[in-house]
Automatic annotation (TrEMBL):
Protein known as: Alpha/beta hydrolase
Leader peptide range in chain numbering: none
Organism: Paludibaculum fermentans
Domain Phospholipase/carboxylesterase/thioesterase, residue spans: 23-206
Record-linked InterPro entries: AB_hydrolase_fold, PLipase/COase/thioEstase
Gene Ontology MF terms in the entry: hydrolase activity
Keyword annotations of the record: Hydrolase
Amino acid sequence: MTAQELGFRHRFVPGVKGGPPVTLVLLHGTGGTEDDLISLGRELLPGAALLSPRGKVLENGMPRFFRRLAEGVFDQKDLALRTTELSRFVEAAKESYGLQDNTTIAVGYSNGANIAASVLLTVPGVFQGAVLLRAMVPFVPSAPPDLQGAAVLLAAGERDPIVETGNTDLLQSILDSAGAQVTLYRHPGGHELGHDDLLAARRWLAGWLGSHAQAAG
């Protein structure tokens, strides 16, 4: 399907026949593109379908998924609009690419992790799980959504100059109160991703999908 038809410029990599019935929705950080996280997705869950949109907002020429007013200060009106847009794109892509029966998991880094968290809190059910790499609290919901059955990995950097420890703790608390099964992994580094993040995410995905399959069976 084209970007015009689905609303986002994107890449789609079909899942391997006999592979895991999972779609990873890959959401890049500021300045990234739809190509950035494809290799990460392949390493995280070999054989899974990959859906990777490009953010439609430009900040000094760099793609993002929503506007910000300053570092860590989000344009809440634009965030709400873009959250709805992304949710509709994911649902339309599921239908267009025949992914309705797949488990859909967001894998977001930085700005991509932030909008993935916003989708979780705004439109429960779009994602059944999420790997949030260096995420911040997108907003504090007036009432917790129903995230029973959803699972989230929060991967935070202990020396992250952008995302403070307290912000990560607040996001964990918000997701916990909504009923999500939250796992917190703290990396000794900063905002950049390290090999340990990949290993932690792979272990988490394998463990959660294994228990998910057992419950379904």
